[in-house]
Amino acid sequence: MAMNVLSILLLCACMPLAARASSAGPPLAHTGAPGEANCTACHASFPINSGNGSFIIEGPVSFRANESHTITVRLQDPGQSRWGFELTTQGQGLISLLEPGRTQVSTAPNGFQYLRHTSLGTNAGTANGPVSWTFNWTAPNVPSTQVVFWAAGNAANNNLGSNGDYIYTTSLTVPLALDAVNDLTLTMDGTMALLGWSPVATATAYRVERASSMDAAWVSLGQVGSPGFLDLGAGNQALYRVVALR
Fold first, then answer.
1. Quick check: helix, strand or coil at residue 158?
2. Do 169 and 95 belong to one domain?
3. Are 130 and 193 part of one and the same domain?
4. What total number of domains does the chain contain?
5. Is 20 in a helix, a strand, or coil?
6. Largest Cα–Cα distance of the chain, in whole Å?
């Protein structure tokens, strides 16, 4: 009987510790991004995105290589009074702090950065929201065609436990700003295609793409640093476009 009582006492003692640890920042890789869990792993009272609140990421409509942008995460939910979040780009670009007292950034073993709330950043006692967290994001030097910001938010009830909290997930997809080359010329020699175009003053490189028809997907043939490209596998019919990258 003594062993049973001791087990119950230990369980009760651990629960507040877990709650305090979460208030200082959730575990990494709980953003709802592909291959990741979300905050319902611990806060399981309600299904994901089942509350009456809203959770959004506010950012630019497009980006260019090496550009820096201010990103804001915003969470609100009627009846809730403590707030948390975690965000990642899964390795796309660099996250840096603008609110070091309210947010923190950590790097996982796989190299992914995770932006999270601190204890101060939970705004304990702030009823209903909205509560927001703002940070800086710098695009990579050689970006992909888009970046996705993934985030999970916790609209908590401030009871120092994991029950009664509503969990939300959201994402923001931001495309790379592209400048199309408008004076593309094409010279065919058998199955080879020689492309030419005028330089774009602000371009640092050009991406050459090919499609087999108007309805087909565009396939990247590679990047070049100056105008001119020779496609050795053009075939008898192909469409081309060249995108200036900045």
1. coil
2. yes
3. no
4. 2
5. helix
6. 90
Cβ atoms of 117 and 25 within 8 Å: the answer is yes
CA atoms in the 13 A half-sphere facing the CB of 37? 11
Closest to 22 in 3D by CA, of 45, 4, 36, 39: 39
Give the pLDDT of the chain (246 residues) as one tens digit per residue: 333 332 222 222 223 333 343 688 999 999 999 999 999 999 999 999 999 999 999 999 999 889 999 999 999 999 999 999 999 999 999 999 999 999 999 999 999 999 999 999 999 999 999 999 999 999 998 778 899 999 999 999 999 999 999 999 999 999 988 777 889 999 988 888 999 999 987 788 899 999 988 888 889 999 999 999 999 988 877 899 998 887
Residues 135 and 118: beta-carbon distance below 8 Å: no
Cis bond before residue 130 (omega within 30° of 0): yes
pTM: 0.72
Q: Beta strands of the chain (E only): which ranges? A: 54-58, 68-76, 82-88, 94-97, 103-107, 113-117, 131-138, 146-156, 166-175, 179-180, 185-189, 192-196, 205-211, 219-224, 229-231, 239-245
Q: In a 3-state reduction of DSSP, which class is residue 8?
A: helix
Q: Return the structure tokens found at 230.
A: 């020779």
- Token couple for 128: 């209903």
Among 126, 146, 175, the domain boundary falls at 175
Contacts of 84 (CB under 8 A, 6+ apart): 22, 23, 25, 26, 39, 116, 117, 121, 122, 153, 154, 156
| Amino acid present at 24 | A
User: What is the residue range of 143's domain?
Assistant: 19-175
